[in-house]
Every structure is written in structure tokens, then in C-alpha cells.
Write a structure and sequence with these properties.
A five-stranded mixed beta sheet has the order 7-6-8-5-9. It has 20 helices and 13 strands. Helix 6 links the parallel strand 1 and strand 2. Helix content is 47%, strand content 15%. The N terminus is likely disordered. By secondary structure, it is an alpha/beta fold. Helix 1 packs across helix 5 and helix 7 packs parallel to helix 8. The protein folds into three domains: 52 residues, no CATH class; 146 residues, Periplasmic binding protein-like II (D-Maltodextrin-Binding Protein, domain 2), CATH 3.40.190; 154 residues, D-Maltodextrin-Binding Protein, domain 2. The longest helix has 19 residues.
Length: 369
């Protein structure tokens, strides 16, 4: 023991600071600054044992997934199931860290350096812009997975109070005087952009011109009382804060709100026309490669197309690609005519530039309110 203590005395604090402190930062260890204040030789021995005990277990794999607001509950279930499958097939533990926010906000965060291995965002443009501005994944990312990298889809519906006191039945009812509408902000929320385009396209589906659609959307947003940053925030405003007569919502988010409320205080109204809303997924390949998790990330997203995952996704009220699972849950979905974004807006790049860029149509009509 004396020999050990003598050798430990020669272990200077300056040398100690060169030990790989990164292991401490990634583990649940005591604050590093306090540990460097140790002066007793015997304590240094215990510190060294403690330090190397804090090193990341080689059997633990981490994955960072950035997603948009309304997927919280779904991916909680998906991740539990996939982590179990991963452990059974590899013998290793998979820990999936989730981040949720408005789709546009998440996209900008990844561009600015958020180290996400995979993303699941509300619309293709929010991933296109990551490829364009940050070059963190290839421009043809949509071709990497089936259905243009959309393992599930949804549409836009209305959520109203019990009994539907304002008699909301279709899109035109949202623009009537005295109707208070809640919808997130298209500048920050992908779901809000789907809402806007669904309203515009519904007028076109009924034979209206672009000019008539623009005038309708202007009147509709004149009734919007609150513009939250994301879809989940808008749902909370409507449901928990009891603000507004109608919420324009993802279909899956509307089902979730009704499911959570007691005594059926809310009900869903399905309009005659709405948009086919396809939220995509992608591997942020540069991040995943640098993190040493590229294959894990690819396998994780591929799993979303497997029947087990498709069933979980459908139970969380998204519509799925697996025809057998879709048929299993078909009765709960409302009957409506869905139009594709390309029919009236060409593609997401054109829609973004025309309607949602700075100075675009949304800015023009909203600043006129």
C-alpha cells in the first residue's frame, strides 16, 4: 500500500486533467470540477477507479431522433418495441433520444448543428432545406425508402366543442363572422402549412379559382385568434386553455385529443375535401456517419415499414402504407376526398416560395388583417 501511495503522489493534477473527461460528460458522474479538487492520494485512487467505471458501455448504442410535435406518443411506443427487437437480435441496448418541436424549427436546428441521426418531420421541404443548406444528406433522400420516405400519412380535419355549437361542417364555415379558429403558425409549423394548403385546395376542389382561394384563406386567417409555433401547442391552446371554437388539426392529433378528454367534450368534423398530408422520415447521413451510427439509423427507419410498426402507428391514428393494417383500422377514419399537393401547388419548393417565404402570400394576407 505504501508503494501504491508513493506512486500516486507523483500523479500530478495537470496530468490528471488530460484524462479523457468526455467519458464523464456522457455519463451520470459527479461534477468534474469537484473531482479535480481532490488532494488526498487515497482519494485519487478511488477517483481513477470511478473515472474508468463511468466510461460508456460498449454494449449501449445511442440514437438521436428529431421529430415534429404530434409524434410524441407514437414514437414512444415505436422506440420501446424497436429497442426490444434490437436487443434480441444484437445483444446490445439501444437508447433512442427524442426531440420534439415544430417541424420548421427542428429543420433549422439541424441546419444550425443539432446532431440528429434521423428526423421525422411534417413535410418534405423541411428535409429538403437540410440537404440544400447544410448538405447533411443527399438531395435524393426521398428515394432511400418506400413511398418517397413516408411510412405513414394523415390529413387535415376540424376539432370542435361538444355539440358543435357553431355548426362547423366544412371549410367555408371557418371564415364566417364570429367563428374563432385556432391553428399553428405556417412560418414555424409544418402542420400549419398543411392546414393552409388544405384550405386553399378545398376551394379549388369545388371549382374556385386561385383568386377566390386567396380571398377565402384571407378571411379564414382573419378569424384565427392564436398562432402557436407548433401543432401540439395549438392543440393545447384549444383543449386545455379552452380558447377558440374550432381547431384545424392533423387527423391523428384530433383523435388523440378526443381520446384524452373525459366525457367526450370534443368531437371531430371531417370536411368533404382535404389534403393528403405525407410527413417524411430521413437519415441525416452525415451526422449518423460521424456518430458511427449510420447502419443503426437506416435499420431504425426501415423498421417503420414492418407490419408490427405499422400496427403501432395505426393505433396512434395515422394512416399507414400496409394495406392489411390500414383495412384493420379503416372504420375509424372519416370519409373524405383527399387531393395531392402537386395538383394545385406543383411541389413543396414551389409552395414554400409562393406561400410561406418572407413576403409570400401568407405574409401578405396576414399583415393585412
Amino acid at each position: 500500500m505504501q508503494r501504491i501511495i508513493k506512486r500516486t503522489k507523483k500523479f500530478s493534477l495537470s496530468r490528471l486533467r488530460r484524462v479523457q473527461v468526455s467519458h464523464l460528460r456522457s455519463a451520470n458522474c459527479l461534477p468534474v470540477r469537484k473531482l479535480f479538487q481532490l488532494k488526498q492520494p487515497i482519494l485519487l485512487i478511488f477517483f481513477l477507479l470511478f473515472l474508468f467505471g463511468c466510461r460508456e458501455n460498449d454494449n449501449v448504442i445511442r440514437l438521436f431522433h428529431a421529430s415534429y410535435d404530434p409524434t410524441r406518443e407514437m414514437f414512444k411506443d415505436i422506440n420501446l418495441r424497436y429497442s426490444k427487437q434490437f436487443a434480441e437480435t444484437t445483444g446490445k441496448e439501444l437508447r433512442i433520444q427524442m426531440s420534439h418541436s415544430g417541424s420548421g424549427k427542428q429543420s433549422r436546428s439541424v441546419i444550425d448543428g443539432l446532431n440528429a441521426d434521423v428526423v421525422s418531420l411534417a413535410l418534405a421541404y423541411d428535409i429538403d432545406i437540410i440537404a440544400e443548406k447544410a448538405e447533411k444528406l443527399p438531395n435524393d433522400w426521398q428515394q432511400k425508402l418506400p413511398f418517397s420516405s413516408t411510412p405513414y400519412y394523415s390529413t387535415i380535419v376540424f376539432l370542435v366543442r361538444k355539440g358543435n355549437p357553431k355548426n362547423i361542417q366544412n371549410w367555408q364555415d371557418l371564415a364566417k363572422p364570429g367563428v374563432e379558429v385556432v391553428s399553428p403558425n405556417p412560418k414555424t409549423s409544418g402542420g400549419a402549412r398543411w392546414n393552409y394548403l388544405a384550405a386553399w385546395g378545398a376551394i379549388r376542389e369545388q371549382g374556385g379559382s386561385d383568386m377566390e382561394a386567396r380571398e377565402f384563406v384571407k378571411r379564414l386567417y382573419g378569424n384565427v385568434r392564436v398562432l402557436d409555433t407548433g401543432a401540439r401547442g395549438a392543440a393545447n391552446t384549444f383543449v386545455q386553455r379552452n380558447i377558440g371554437d374550432v381547431l384545424i388539426s392533423w387527423e391523428n392529433e384530433a383523435f388523440l385529443a378526443v381520446e384524452k378528454m373525459k366525457e367526450s367534450e370534443l368531437q371531430i368534423v371531417v370536411p368533404e375535401f382535404s389534403i393528403l398530408a405525407e410527413p417524411p422520415v430521413a437519415v441525416i447521413s452525415q451526422n449518423a456517419y460521424n456518430n458511427g451510427r449510420l447502419q443503426v439509423a437506416q435499420n431504425y427507419l426501415t423498421y417503420l415499414y414492418e407490419r408490427e410498426a405499422q400496427d403501432v402507428i395505426a393505433r396512434h391514428h395515422f394512416r399507414v402504407r400496409d394495406k392489411i393494417i390500414l383495412k384493420k383500422y379503416a372504420e375509424k377514419y372519416g370519409k373524405l376526398k383527399m387531393f395531392d399537393l402537386k395538383k394545385y401547388f406543383t411541389n413543396w419548393s414551389t409552395a414554400q416560395k409562393t406561400h410561406f417565404s418572407d413576403g409570400g402570400i401568407f405574409d401578405q394576407i396576414f399583415t393585412q388583417q
